[in-house]
Amino acid sequence: MNWLKELNCINSSFRGTGLSQNCFYLQKISFQTVLFKELLVQFPRTTLIWNSPNHNSHPHPQPHCSLSALHLDLLLSLTPALRHLKLASQRKTLDSVFDSTYWESLISIKLPKLDKFEFIFFYTDNKNDDSINPEALIAPFRSSFWLHDKRWFVASAYVLRENEIWLHTTPINCTSIKDLVRVETSWMDNGYRLTARPLNKILDTSSDKTLTKLDLHSNRISGQKIQYLINALYNNTTLVELSLGDSQIGDRDAQDLAHALQNNSTLTILGLWQNQIGHQGAQYFADVLRNNTALKELYLQNNSIGDLGAQYLAHALQNNTILTTLYLDANGIGRHGIQNLANTLENNKTITTLGLGYNQIGDQEAQYLVNALAKSLFGCFSDIKTCCCGFCCLPCTFGDNVEKTDGTSCIGCCLAYWVSSACYLCWVPHMMKRKVLRQKYLLKPEPCHDCLVTACCGPCAVCQEARELKSRSGAQGRPNVLPVRAQPVAYRK
C-alpha cells in the first residue's frame, strides 16, 4: 500500500500529541482549521487557533496548550497561509513573546498573509521586580507596523491584586479570564488609567465609571508597583473609596500619593493604616487637607507619625471644613501632639470622630481634650459654676472677663454692659472685647463673626469666654471635671 502524500481535513484536532508529530502533520496534511489540545510542550495555559483563508467559523480557545517562543516559531513557520492567529499564554518569564520586534519579524517573514492577530500574555511577578514596566512593554507596539499597516491595537496592564503583568490586543474575547481591576496603558496614550473594563470591550473611559471602590489592603504593593496606581489616580474621576492598609507605604510613596490627591475631587475615604508613614508622610497629607475639597475620612492607625506628624495634621485642620473622621491610633503621639490636636478641636467644628487609642495619653493629655470639647459656644453645661454666674449676673461675668483679658476695670466694664443693655447695644462693647481676647490667645472667630455671636447669642458668648479664661488661668482655675485616662475615640455630635 502506498502512503498518502497529502490529506485535506476540515476542523481537525490533535490531542495529546508532541511537537514532532504536529510538525509532521502540518508538513504533510493541508488543513482548513487546526486546533491543538493538550500539546505536550513547555508551559501551561496556552491557546493556539489557526483559521485558514476559506474557514469562517468563530475560533474557540482551549486552555491546555503551551509553547515556548522557539517552538511557536517552528510551528508557525509551517503555516505560511495562516490568516487568523489567536494566542493566550501564561509565561514564566518575560520572554520574546512580549517583544514587538519578535512578532514583526516573524509575521513579515513567515506569516505574510496574516490579517487578524489576537493575543494575551500573562506574567506573574513573584519577585517584585521593579524593572518591569508596562509602559516600556507597550511603547514598541506604537510603531507604524502595528497602528497603520496592520491596525492591531495593544494594551499593557499591571493587575493589582494578582501581581500580574498583562500584554494583549484590544478588544479580545477570552471568556476564561476575569475582568480584574488593573492599571492600564495602551497604544493611544502615555499615561495610566485605573480600569476593570471587560477585555472584549474597546478602550473607552466611560467603561471605567462603575469603579468607585478599590480595596487593596494587605496586598503589600510597594516600590514601582505603587507608582503605577499613583499615576492612575492623577486622572481618575470615579474612585470614591481607596484602601491601602498594610501595603508597606513609606514617606516617599506617601509624598507621591499626596501629590496625586491634591486636586482630586471624588475620593472621600482613604485608608492607610498599618504602613510605614512617619512625620514626613503626615506632613504631605497635611498639605492635602489644606487643598483637597473631597476627602472626608482618613485612616492612619498603626503608623509612626509621632508628635511632629500630629502637629502638621492639627495645623492643616485649622481651616479644613471637609474632613469628619480622622483615626490616629497607635502612632506614638504624646503630650505635644495631643495638645496641638486639642487646640484644633476648639476651632474645627467639622470633625466628629477622632481616634487616638493606644497613644501616650495620660491625665494631662486627656484634660487637654476635655477642655477643648468644653469650649464650644454652646458648651455651657460643661462648667455649671460659670454657667450659673453668667445667668445670675451677666454684666459682672463680662466685667470679670475683660479685667482678666486686658486689665480694664471690672466695675467700669460691668456698668458699661448694664447701661448699654437698656438700649439693646450691649453687644457693641462685648464685640470689641471679644476681639481683644481672640487676638491675645490667637483664637479664630467661632462659630461665626464676633458681631453675629455677641448680637444673637451674647450670654452664651460671655460664658464661653469665661470658660476659655478659666482654662488658661492654671490648674486651679480649670473646670471641675474628672480626667479621662483612656479615650480611644473622641466623638462630637
Automatic annotation (TrEMBL):
GO BP term, example = nucleocytoplasmic transport
Task: List the protein's name.
Answer: Uncharacterized protein
Classify the source by domain of life. Answer: Eukaryota
Q: Which Pfam families match?
A: LRR_6, PLAC8
Record's keyword annotation contains Repeat: yes
The record's GO molecular-function terms, alphabetically, read: GTPase activator activity; small GTPase binding
| UniProt GO cellular component terms | cytosol; nucleus; perinuclear region of cytoplasm
InterPro entries documented for this protein: Leu-rich_rpt, LRR_dom_sf, PLAC_motif_containing, RanGap
Keywords (alphabetical) are: GTPase activation, Leucine-rich repeat, Repeat
Q: Which family does it belong to?
A: Belongs to the cornifelin family.
